[in-house]
């Protein structure tokens, strides 16, 4: 039987050091770094590879979607660590209920990659 043992997307950066610092400020970790690529660990079971370049401005076309328990708690965390103040070009939006039913906090990393911190609200 064919099997995939792991899956890690490549995420571009404009400034490698700044992007590593950005993801660490989110609470993620750098597992290893050889100067040409590093592995970013979300610390909740998922990883991606951060590149030191942004070929053809790819970052503005890339989105990463994280399902979380609370979009509001992630928004509060981004505000508490002053993400926007620390990293030029970074934006954070308040949680918003999307027409397809997910509550999402959007974050743009320094290179323009759009991150979705999404929760499925429970019916009360």
Can you describe this structure?
The protein has 124 residues and is an alpha+beta fold. 20% of the residues lie in helices and 29% in strands. It has helices spanning 16-26, 71-80, 83-86, and strands spanning 10-11, 29-33, 38-41, 47-50, 63-67, 91-92, 96-97, 103-108, 114-119. A hairpin with a 5-residue loop joins strand 8 and strand 9.
| N-end to C-end Cα span | 43 Å
Q: Which of globular, elongated, flat, extended, rod-shaped describes the shape?
A: globular
| Secondary structural class | alpha+beta
SSE string:
EHEEEEHHEEEE
Rg computed from alpha carbons, rounded to a whole number of angstroms: 15 Å
Instruction: Name the helicity range.
Output: 10-25%
- Mean pLDDT rating: 94
The number of helical elements comes to: 3
Strand content: 25-35%
Residue runs with pLDDT of under 50 for 5 or more positions: none
Q: Care to count the β-strands? A: 9
Q: What's the structural blueprint in terms of helices and strands?
A:
Blueprint: E1 10-11, H1 16-26, E2 29-33, E3 38-41, E4 47-50, E5 63-67, H2 71-80, H3 83-86, E6 91-92, E7 96-97, E8 103-108, E9 114-119
Parallel strand pairs: 1-4, 5-9
Antiparallel strand pairs: 2-3, 3-4, 6-8, 7-8, 8-9
């Amino acid at each position: 039987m064919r099997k995939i043992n792991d899956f890690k997307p490549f995420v571009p950066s404009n400034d490698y050091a700044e992007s590593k610092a950005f993801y660490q400020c989110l609470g993620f970790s750098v597992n290893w770094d050889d100067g040409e690529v590093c592995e970013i660990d979300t610390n909740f079971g998922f990883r991606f590879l951060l590149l030191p370049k942004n070929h053809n401005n790819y970052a503005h076309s890339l989105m990463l979607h994280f399902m979380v328990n609370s979009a509001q708690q992630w928004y509060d965390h981004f505000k508490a660590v002053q993400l926007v103040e620390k990293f030029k070009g970074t934006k954070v939006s308040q949680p918003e209920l999307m027409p397809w039913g997910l509550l999402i906090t959007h974050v743009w990393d320094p290179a323009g990659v759009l991150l979705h911190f999404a929760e499925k609200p429970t019916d009360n």
